[in-house]
Specification:
The chain is an alpha/beta fold. Helices cover about 35% and strands about 15% of the residues. The protein has 9 helices and 8 strands. Strands 3-4-5-2-6-7-1-8 form an 8-stranded mixed β-sheet, sandwiched between helices. β6, α5 and β7 form a beta-alpha-beta unit. The protein is elongated. The N and C termini lie far apart (about 50 Å). The model has no long low-confidence stretch (mean pLDDT about 90).
Length: about 250
């Protein structure tokens, strides 16, 4: 496997603040690019303590860990004798990268790290994030923006946070099949004139195609604003409605 630089990699590498908040759609290559940067940092800087955390270790074994091994093999630096229990790699210079699942309530508490990378951060609670990262010198999170969550309220507003939004267009080496599948979301969600014809697929395109924050699945109302003069001009009658709600109180 030959590693190629993507636009996503270059954009992430340009971030400078303590917290990197990377929001991205399907196929953007955000996680793979972050792993490349972590491996490069660990192998080039001695004594670095780097953790990669996600909500479930079992899922990491077929996603993030698999990509990590691809990166190591492509760099030509993987030494099986330095790979412990399939979750810890110790580099010859004393640096290490360790993968932790957050399945257990107390895991990650009190950790001090040079870098803490939280993969799919939208799947963990804010308190868990805070406990993981409060002692970290640098924090990286990535996520698909299915809906707004604590990162949008707690991190993006901070002056020490760099926010980055990526899409499949930032990954020049995305497979043709996956790229075409992403484009089908738009075809099924929108008419040629741009009008929404299917809310589900329109939301899929917004999240996974455009990398924008999506609407909650199952919501009863979707909202569209119109100018006041158009509202006044409508042929209106008084209507009383009641929504017991799933997501909207």
């Amino acid at each position: 496997m030959i590693l190629q630089q993507t636009t996503a990699l270059r954009k992430i590498a340009s971030l400078k603040k303590r917290i990197w908040c990377v929001q991205g759609g399907q196929g953007a290559g955000k996680t793979f690019a972050i792993l490349m940067l972590l491996v490069n940092h660990a192998s080039g800087q001695p004594g670095k303590e780097i953790f990669v955390a996600s909500d479930e270790l079992s899922k990491m074994r077929i996603t993030v860990l698999k990509d990590f091994l691809k990166v190591m093999m492509a760099f030509g630096i993987f030494d099986r004798s330095r790979w412990t229990d399939g979750v810890l790699y110790r580099f010859a210079n004393g640096s290490f990268i360790r993968f932790i699942g957050l399945d257990k309530e107390d895991i990650g508490k009190g950790l001090r790290s040079d870098i803490m990378f939280v993969n799919e951060a939208n799947k963990i609670k804010f308190d868990t994030y805070r406990e993981l990262t409060s002692r970290a010198k640098r924090v990286i999170i990535d996520f698909n923006p299915n809906k707004k969550f604590w990162a949008h309220q707690e991190l993006v507003i901070r002056d020490d946070c760099s926010f980055l939004k990526l899409t499949y267009k930032d990954n020049e080496y995305l497979g043709v099949e996956e790229r075409n599948e992403i484009l089908r979301y738009k075809e099924r969600g929108y008419a040629p004139d741009g009008q929404v014809i299917n809310q589900y697929w329109a939301n899929m395109w917004r999240v996974y195609g455009e990398g924008e924050t999506g609407q909650v699945e199952g919501r009863i109302y979707t909202w569209q604003s119109i100018p006041t003069d158009k509202y006044i001009a409508l042929d209106k009658q008084e209507v009383i409605g009641n929504d017991w709600g799933k997501v909207d109180p």
